[in-house]
Each structure stands twice: as structure tokens, then as C-alpha cells.
Amino acid sequence: MYKRILGLSVVLLSGCSTLSSDDDFSDAINEVEKKSIYVSIEAKSINPIENEGVGANAMRNTSQLTANYATTSRAVPESYVAVELSYFKASYAYDSVSFNGTETDITAYSPSTESCSEHCTSTQYFTFPIDNKDIELSAKNGLTYDVHATNGTSKLSFTIPAGYFQAVLDEKALQLEHTPLAVQQPVAEVKVESKDSKSVEMSKYWFDEATVAEQEQFTEWAFANRKSISTQLKSDSKSVEMLSYWYEKASTEDRAQILTWLLNK
Q1: How many domains is the chain partitioned into structurally?
Q2: Model pLDDT for residues 44-75, shown as the tens digit of each residue
Q3: 243 in a domain, yes or no?
Q4: Among 40, 46, 154, 211, who pairs with 56 as Cys (CB 3.0-4.6 Å)?
Q5: Which helix (H) or strand (E) segment is 216 a member of?
Q6: Model confidence over 110-144: pLDDT tens digits?
């Protein structure tokens, strides 16, 4: 579910970039990536406040928010929090998180580890999804989330201050302010006078917007997928992205019409 977690363990273990809960969060953003259909804002990792738990205490918790915001009408990956959680080794592991009245399963992004010196400790590496509305709410009240053990005998509770989430919202406002209007507009708002179906109409529009190389790329892909979509057309080009989007939405009859139009170009 969460594709962009490669190398998270390295980031989370980097103490020099980890924020404390009493930070002023003026430099809370670690990285911003602009994708073709969304902006991904990765905050720096933070050591949250540990609240009173049940049955155990954490030795260390490092949490990190990645917030994804759409710049088109297309669906984008969920925002999520990545967590590195260390505790005294026990017969159980943690498998769910709850906050704001909901509970969700966690997803491991790296196998759990163990280490022993005087005492043995276990460390879990996992993510859990967070809705963008919850991010906005957390910018006002902070986020308290509880981590639950498999057998229900242990619960750990942590709080991330509101300022951490506000820093992400401030970065979002800055990034979307400078996102090109054509990207911000929902696709349906692009108007072209035509008697064609919407899929055919928009395919023609975006084909004319594409470069010659992009037109050739799309044409080759469209003919190869004329009956059904068996491969995805990958490109950083806005025109190619929109071409593949509308072609995939087209009916069999509409695809035939698009292909005939391409042959006559």
C-alpha cells in the first residue's frame, strides 16, 4: 500500500535529522517531491511524547509523516506515518494503531529486529495510513495514537505536537500555490467543442498538446492495447499521462474511433 518507503529505516535512524517534541518546527520538512498527479511532502522524523500505556513502556519511538496531496482529479497514494518502535522483548508484537476513534492494522516496511546486552529489546518498523483530514485536525490539536499488542495485553500511547502537522500544511500551501494551473484543474474542466464522446474528445485534445515524440509513444501503446489495457503507459509528461487516462476510460467503440483518428492524422 505504501510504495515510497524504501530507505525509511535509514532516514528514521538518522538522529541528526530527528526532531524533538519541544521543537519549534521551523525546519520540519525533510523533502518535497512533485509527481505528475500529486505532491508528496515528507516531514522530518520526530520523537513523540510517550503517554501512560498499559502493560509496557517504549524504549524509543521515532515517527515520520509523509503527506500526499492530489493536483488533479485522479486518485493518489494515501498519506501515512512511518514508525520505528523499540521496547523490551516480550512474547507479543504490536499489530494495530488507533487514533481519532478508529483502529487500523499496521504494515511492516522492514522485518522486526532484536538485540541483547543486559536486556533484550525488540524493534518493529511499520507504517499506518492517515487521512489528510486527520492531518488538518492534528495541526490544531496534535495527534495521539495508540499502538496495540496482538494479544491485547499491551498498549503504548504517543502524542505528536500540532506544530509538526502545521509545518506540513504550510508547505502544502506553498507547493500548491506554485503548481501550474493546468495541473491543478480537474480534467473534466478542460473544455473542447466536439460531438465526440468525452473520452474521444479529451484524447484528441491531449494528443494535439503532446510533442511529436509523445504522440508516437502514445500511438504505439494505443494500438498495442486496442482490445484491452495489458500494459501501463508510463511517462512524466502531462500530455501522455492524460492521453493514457482517457484512453483507458474509453469504451471499445471509442478506442476504435480514436485509433481511426490516429491513422488519419
Answers
A1: 2
A2: 999 999 998 887 788 999 999 999 999 988 88
A3: yes
A4: 154
A5: helix 212-224
A6: 889 989 888 899 999 999 999 999 999 999 999 99
Contact 15, 93 (CB under 8 A): no
| Contacts of residue 15, Cβ cutoff 8 Å, sequence gap at least 6 | none
Bridging pattern class, strands 155-160 and 143-149: antiparallel
Question: Do 102 and 166 have their domain in common?
Answer: yes
Rounded CA separation 114/5 (Å)? 21
In sequence order, what are the beta bridge partners of 29?
43
* First vs last C-alpha separation in the chain: 41
Cell of 26: 521551523
Q: Give the position of cell 491513422.
A: 263
Q: Environment class of residue 229 by beta-carbon count within 10 Å: exposed (0-12), middle (13-18) or buried (19+)?
A: middle
Looking at residue 7, the DSSP 8-state letter turns out to be T
Q: Please, which residues bridge with residue 103 across strands?
A: 98
* CA 143 and chain centroid, separation: 18
Query: Do 200 and 255 touch, CB atoms closer than 8 A?
Result: no
Shared domain check, 239 and 116: no
Same domain, 238 and 172: no
d(CA 74, CA 71): 8
CB contact at 8 A, 110 and 126: no
CA distances from 32 to 39, 40, 121, 219 (A): 7, 6, 34, 33
Whole-angstrom Cα distance, residue 183 to residue 238?
Answer: 8
All three cell numbers of 68, joined, read 500526499
- Which run of H or of E encompasses 42? strand 38-43
43 and 154 share one domain: yes
Q: Domain residues for 120?
A: 29-178
